[in-house]
Amino acid sequence: MSAYHNDLNNRETAAEFLLDQLGQDPKNRVSWTPNLRSESLKKWIRSEKPDVVICQENSIIPELRSEGFRVPEDFGVIHLNLCSDVSGWAGIDQNHQAIGMASINLVVGQINRNERGVPLYPMEVTLPSRWIDGWTLPAKMSLRPIAINFSVLRKRCAFLVNKN
Hints:
- With 164 residues, this protein is an alpha/beta fold.
- It has helices at 3-22, 39-48, 60-66, 96-112, and strands spanning 31-32, 52-55, 76-79, 90-93, 130-132, 159-161.
- The protein is 33% helix and 12% strand.
C-alpha cells in the first residue's frame, strides 16, 4: 500500500471510529489513541489504568514493558490481526489463508470469464474471523460491555477500553 493510501486509510479509520463514538453513551466511549508512542498514551495508561489495550501494533508489548508496564499483570492486550509474529497473543484471527484462497478464486473466475480491467461492480467477499485466547489477557478478565462498530476493527487502529 502506498504511503498516501495508508495515510488515507488511517484517516478514514479515525473518522469512522470517532463518528461511532459520538453515538455512544459518554460512559461507554472508548479513547482513541492513534500514536502508541505518544507521551499522552503513557500518561493516560498510568492515570486511567485500563483493563485492556486493543491494538494492531506488533511492537506494543516491548514498548509498554520499556515503560514499566507488565502485560498481562497490569492490563491485557488484544491484537486485531493475529499473525505469526504475535503468536500466542489474545485477539482476532482474520483467517489470512482463507482470504488468500478466496482472492485466488475471484481472480481465476475473472480470467475464466475473460474479464479485463477494473470491474464496474467490484465483488467483495467477507470471511468470518475468530477469537483466539492468549497469554496477553489475564486468565479471568471481566470487561464491562461496550458497543463498538466492528467495521472499525477491520482497519488499522489502536484504542483503549477503560475500567468501570
